[in-house]
Amino acid sequence: MELSVLNIKGEDTGRKVTLSDAVFGVEPNEHAMYLDVKQYLANQRQGTHKSKERAEVAGSTKKIKKQKGTGGARAGSLKSPVFIGGGRVFGPKPRNYSFKLNKKLKEVARVSALSLLARDNKVALVESFTFDAPKTKEFISILSNLNSTGKTLVVVPAVDKNVVLSGRNLKKVKVSTASDLNTYDLLNTDRVLMVEDSVKVLENLFSAQ
């Protein structure tokens, strides 16, 4: 697959880049993508939820009424879950939601996501650009020139602080380096604006596939 390289004004530069079939032309593996996204979302969970059980609730331990003769059920403590203010039965406890995935599977998932985007014509190549200082207005202007109005993932070959800061406050925009791409971000976007040099980084990263 060949893609034309655009400049920041949205104009065709006349250059084309051939995308590797090993990265942008594989048959998408839906189950691998599902597992990678599931792991990513699980890792975002803090797992700090907690409710008090009857042993942790503050209150008197005195028997609230005699055992027999009241006509009601037996009751030995106000901390019992059957009373208002009592402890919760089988409530949530702090836990770690993360789980392990093989490195090869995660690579398959990312390559599958990239191939899916390329197949749906959601990938655009842009020549390298930078800013002298963080400039959100200029960043918005570039997106407008490239007709990127929805969710946009901007992929840069290496960390560029000014580019990252320029797009950080934009709700529908995320800037990521090619080496830090994840399946969730790839699938949760309407378009990928890939800086030209990022293609080589991805092809080197997934060359073993």
Describe the structure.
- This protein has 209 residues and is of the alpha/beta class.
- Helices cover 32% and strands 15% of the residues.
- It is built from seven helices and six strands, in the order ββαααβαβαβαβα.
- The chain has a six-stranded mixed β-sheet with strand order 2-1-3-6-4-5, with helices on one face.
- A hairpin with a 5-residue loop joins strand 1 and strand 2 (12-18).
- Helix 2 packs across helix 3 and helix 4 (136-145) packs across helix 5 (161-167).
- The longest helix is centred in the middle third of the chain and has 17 residues, at 103-119.
- The radius of gyration is 27 Å and the shape is elongated.
- It starts with a strand and ends with a helix.
Helix amount: 25-40%
Write down the domain tally: 2
CATH architecture descriptor name of the largest domain: 3-Layer(aba) Sandwich
The sequence of SSEs as H and E is EEHHHEHEHEHEH
CATH class of the largest domain: Alpha Beta
The helix/strand class is alpha/beta
- The H-level CATH homologous superfamily of the largest domain, spelled out, is Ribosomal protein L4/L1
Rounded mean pLDDT score: 91
The amount of beta strand, in percent, is 5-15%
- Largest sheet geometry: 6 strands, mixed
- The DSSP helix count reads 7
Number of strands: 6
Uncertain segments: none
What general form does the structure show? elongated
CATH third-tier fold name of the largest domain: Ribosomal Protein L4, Chain: A
Distance between the termini: 18 Å
> Whole-number radius of gyration?
27 Å
Strand order of the largest sheet: 2-1-3-6-4-5
Family: Belongs to the universal ribosomal protein uL4 family.
Organism: Pontibacter locisalis
Keywords: Ribonucleoprotein, Ribosomal protein, RNA-binding, rRNA-binding
Subunit structure: Part of the 50S ribosomal subunit.
